[in-house]
Amino acid sequence: MEELIHYCWKHRLLPLGDLRTTSGKLVEVIDPGLHNRNSGPDFFNAKVKIDGTLWVGNVEIHDEASDWFAHGHDHDAHYDNVILHVVGKADAEAKTASGMTLPQLELEVPQTVRNHYKELLTTDQYPPCYRIIPDLGKLMLHSWMSALQTERLEQKTEAIKQRTDDCGGSWEAAYFVTLARNYGFGINSEAFEAWAKTIPLHAVDHHRDNLFQIEAIFMGQAGLLELDAVPERYRKAASEDGYFTRLRDEYLYLAHKFGLHPMDYKLWRFLRLRPQNFPHIRISQLANLYFGRKAGLSQLMECTTVEQMEEILKTRVTPYWETHYTFGSESSRNEKRLSPFSLNLLMINTAIPMLFAYGRHKSSDKLCDRAFDFLDQLKAENNHIVKMWKACGLTVRSAGDSQALIQLKKEYCDRKDCLRCRIGYEYLKTR
Q1: Cα-flanking dihedrals φ and ψ of residue 107, to 5°?
Q2: Pick from 387, 390, 357: which is nearest to 371 by CA?
Q3: How do strand 82-89 and strand 104-106 relate by DSSP bridges?
Q4: For a Cys staple, 359 with which of 117, 164, 367, 406, CB 3.0–4.6 Å?
């Protein structure tokens, strides 16, 4: 398997004893080189002694030597400076475009590495590396968790940058879309992002001092002011509900004024959703938050403590929704504030990534460092992924740790990408 040969070469997991080319020349690996994941040779600037002579250049790796020709390297001048062709099976000679015959090393992957890699790919227990986790060094774990945490923030930064581009370069609008997406708390995330992109903030700003009009636009753009969007058993009551009627009439006026078109209400999901998470409740909370002028991008950038960040995100529903979960259906009075759990998730998934992304945009180390500090101060998430790693023996102290472990599960474990994982490396090298 070519990727396993890559791995053994990169990490120098080489067979015991002398290495020799297919022509019998002694090979000594001084430096395997820099792994290249883009086009061109697999490893740049390797240092290899062949029969006592030091060669500096590139190394190409294949499962079979004949792949050199199958991939067209014999006609590609980019491969003229390859100094060694490392293969699993030397079934042919390899020649460069300049006509030079390359020295070839037939590299046998150690049997222990093969066995352990097979275990990682086929073991039913999850994660497959569970048995070595309690024995891993603290320094290695700390280093890997820090790298994963950064990787996750970088990934979220790319998503935010894409939203910024979609919003015509407006970071303020991208922040609103990101915040809205995370108000979906998983089940309705996609619908909330689609909804937020239909909200013309420049138009809403003209009515920002009127909470009723903000809610009319927000609910109307969600398609929730159409009678067909109301559950059938509440439809008659909703049609006679004065607040529903006034909201709908106000939305129709504003929609005509600004040329608005609502999204399809069928995109919203209600199945197995707690009433507290109904779109009506979350949209009302967002309307109140927007009306309060607390959670703009500038306010977020001014936060220097977790407490300040939490304060600007706190919100509640508008008065009507204190006694309703949907139009036409009354419930006992409840202010329906964001719970501490929800606030924690919004800070982890919205505020901190936005702080980091904007810090990168402005080349501000201060903002980026603050994002990491806030993650270290917040409570860890307590979802099934975090519980799984805890059961394996990993200590989870903060949101920084839980974010790192979510990244590990989604980007490495789920993809069986054990060869890029540092825990996978420790597993493969065990005897």
Answers
A1: -100, 120
A2: 357
A3: parallel
A4: 367
